[in-house]
Every structure is written in C-alpha cells, then in structure tokens.
Amino acid sequence: MARSRFFWTLYFGCLLLVVIATIAAILLVAPASGARAFVVALAIIAIAAVFAFVFAARIARKFERPLEELASAAQAIADGDYTREARSGGGGETAKLAEALNRMAKLVRERMDTIGKERNQVLAILSSMVEGVIAVDAEQHVVHMNKAAASILGTNIETCAGKPVWEVVRISAINEATDQVMQDGKESTGETRITTAAGLERVIEIHAAPLRDTQGGTAGAVVVLFDLTELRRLEAVRRDFVANVSHELKTPLAAIRGLVETLLDDPVMPSHTRTRFLEKARSQTNRLTNIVSDLLTLSRIESQDDGLERASVDLRRIVLDVVRLLGADAEGKNIKLEAILPEQQRANVLGDDEGLRQAVSNLIVNAIKYTPEGGTVSVRLACDNGQARLEVEDTGIGIEQKHLGRIFERFYRVDKARSRDLGGTGLGLSIVKHVATSAGGSVDVRSVFGKGSTFSIQLPLDTNGD
To answer: What does the alpha-carbon distance between residue 427 and residue 420 come to, in Å, rounded to a whole number?
Structure first.
C-alpha cells in the first residue's frame, strides 16, 4: 500500500531521533564495552526502526483520514455537489475545518438555489412577455432571446444562442441600434417595417439599452421589440371611422341648412313649395337621427363596459316578432316575406334581447330594400349540433364578389348613391356582426350578382335555457 509523504516524514523523523540517541549512548559506553556495545546499539536501532514504522503508521492514519475526507468533500463541492458533507472523524482542528467547510457548502447551496429561482423567474417573465427581447454580450453574441422576439424575427431560439446578433437578425435597423448602444452606451429608440415569411408587413418599434458591469462599463445590450402593427391598424380604423362619421353627418346637416336658409330667404314662397322643402328637411332629419341611433347602438355593443344583460332568449320568438312587424313593409312592395321556423321548438341563445332583435331586423329590412317588387324574402331558422343558424335569403340585386369581404365594415356601401336614396346609414350590417360576435357567434354572406343574397347568423344554443 502506498504511503503518503506525511507518513514517511514522520517515520524518518522518529527513526532519526532513535539513531541519534543510540549513537550518543555508544559514544558514552564504547570505551568500556567495545564491540559488544556496538552490536547492542545495532539491535536497538533495528527494534527502534520497527517501532518507529508502527508509530508513524498509526499517527499518519489518525491525521490522514480526516484530511482525505476533507479533501474529498472540498473536491465534491468544487464540482457542484453542495449536498456533500465533510466528516472529520475526530476532534481538534480538523473538526473545525470540516464544520467550516460544511457551513460554506450550505451557504453556497442556498445562494445557488436563490440564483436558480431568480433566473427561472426572469426566464418566465421574459417568456410571457408579448414584447420581443434580445440580450447580447460585449462581443454582440446573443445571450438570450424570448419567444416573442423569435416570432417577430422568424427565427429559432435554440439555434440563436452564442451566435453574433447580425448573423441571427437580418434587420438592419436592429443591428444599427445594437451597434449604437455598444459604441455610445446610451439608449436608442427607432421604428422600422419588416416583411414576414408569409409576406405580411409588420411595424416594429425598437428600444435598445446598454447592460452595465460592476464598474459601470458596457457589458452588452438588451433590445426590446414592440409590435405596433395592430395599434397602427386600429389607429387607421379610428381615423377612417371619424372621417366617415363626419362625412355622413355633414351631408344631411348641409341639406337641412340649405333648405332652412331657402325657406328663410323667401318669405313669399308658395305653400306647396314650402311644404315640399319641409318634407325634404324632415327626411334629412330622419336620416340624421338614424345615423346617430345606429352609432349609439354600435358603441353600446362594442364597449367593454356596456353593461348589457346577457340572458337566455328565444331566437325563434324574436324572428316571429320581427317578421310580423315588417310584414306591412314587404306587402307595400308586393314582396313575399316567408318564415320557415322549427315547429314547436325553442331556439334559446345567450345574448342581448334588444341587440338580437335589431340584428334580425337589419337583415330583413335590407333584404326588403334591395329586392324588387314581386320578389321573395325567406327567413329560415334551424338548430343542429348545438348551433342555431338564421338565414335571410332574398331574390334581390345581389352583391359582386369583390365587395363581400368588406360588406360588414362600418359605413361600407356597395352602391353609395342607392344606399342613401333607400335611407341606409352604412352601419346596419356592422351592427349585425358585432351582435353576433358578442354572443359568441359568427356571420356569413353568400351572393350571386343579379340573383340575390343570403345572409346568415350562427349562434351557440343555450343548453341551460328554459
């Protein structure tokens, strides 16, 4: 068995002491004893060597084992095993050293656990962010990229780590912002437009900031990407809506103003002419009232805090009521208005009774308006697979295919002049769509130009309704 340096040092030290003591004794007794004393001395040295070996081995074992245990524990801690405990196997200084080593391992373990938890929290926060985040080191190599950034850039997170940012990101504006931050150490903000792999254009706001080290130097940079595409779209919708509302309100107001000014400027106007002007003013006033009413309805439906009471309502009863109410309008144009409904069967849906009535009314009113005399308007209601489907089919003028995709937009008209002549506000179908979607349903349209159209609403049935 190999012996340690400590053992051999102890052994030869003890042996040296015995040899020195023996030589001193020989020198003292040599004149009297002669050769016999020398033999005795050699025997003593041999016996002393054996005892020194045994003594050194026991002493070395006593000190080496605790030290080996401490060294093994220290190596395990250095390798990352912070649960390993050092055992000294005795008292004294080695026990104190083992206790200190165990205390250090416990503190390191606690700190590593804290660091791990904080790291996981940061990664969870970054992963849940809708903004894209890219972190780079001093050499502009990617340190971290969250899912949102990978989605915006159309890249893979797993293949990005450790690569230069300019190799991963092919957008010059982002690379320029990173370069500027690394050079100046100051925050940078910009905006760019990118085209995705699917060919869609996205508007991205770039915010880059430096990462500081303990001395305050630039140790890297973090780039945050905000996808402003939806915000810009909503801003465009808002601008278009304001412009459309202004135009729609301005038209009847201008007509009313002109009629009133004409009446005021001509006090001797014949009574029949005055009456005709007043009737036109009333017509424009009614149109203005309808626009404002539809705007308020649309606002009430779209508002997140609309306070609408959702209740289980019978769609079959609503359709019957509306068909009966609009029967006179259909007869006035010699149009056949028919309702095909489930016999003795309720069609309960969860929604706003007033909103659903208006949606059904808007569809039937439009069908009557755009169907010539002698035509037919059919209203069908069917329930199947947990869904209620309402269809309003007419034999009217129909809609060209190019208009079908936008027919449910606010103020969108296929024929603006014809719509205004018929008293349309351009909001009816938009109200239909929002009522349906707010009740968890959908809308659809099929049309053949010159032959007629079919508008449909599909709503989930309320299985808990009475």
So the answer is: 12
Say whether both 277 and 405 belong to one domain.
no
Residue 215 C-beta-side C-alpha neighbours within 13 Å: 3
Residue 122 maps to a domain: no
Domain that holds residue 87: 5-95
Contact 20, 69 (CB under 8 A): no
What DSSP state is assigned to residue 212? E
Greatest Cα pair distance, the chain, in angstroms, is: 172
Q: Report CA Rg, the chain.
A: 46
| Lookup: tokens for 112 | 């590593």
Count other Cβ atoms within 10 Å, centred on residue 108.
13
Residue pair 250/284 in contact by the 8 Å Cβ criterion: no
**Residue 290: its H or E element:** helix 271-302
Which pair of tokens denotes residue 146?
Answer: 């969250």
pLDDT tens-digit map of 62-85:
666 666 677 777 777 777 776 777
CB atoms within 10 A of CB 28: 11
Which residues, 6+ apart, have CB-to-CB distance to 14 below 8 Å? 52, 55, 56
As a whole number of angstroms, the distance between CA 459 and CA 439 comes to 7
For residue 313, report the phi and psi dihedrals to the nearest 5 degrees.
Answer: -120, 150
Give the residue, 147 or 18, on which the prediction is more confident: 147
What pLDDT is attached to residue 27? 55
Per-residue pLDDT at 305 exceeds 50: no
**Confidence grade of residue 226 (pLDDT, cut at 50, 70, 90):** confident
Question: By C-alpha distance, which of 118, 122, 131, 82 is closest to 103?
Answer: 82
Q: Count of domains in the chain?
A: 4
Distance between CA atoms of residues 149 and 385, nearest Å: 41
Residues 272-298 as b/e (b if ≥16 CB within 10 A, e otherwise) read: eeeeebeeebeebeebbebbeebbebb
Same-domain check for residues 272 and 392: no
Last residue of a domain, one of 204, 227, 250: 227
State the residue for tokens 């080191």: 137
What CATH number is given to the structural domain containing 178? 3.30.450.20
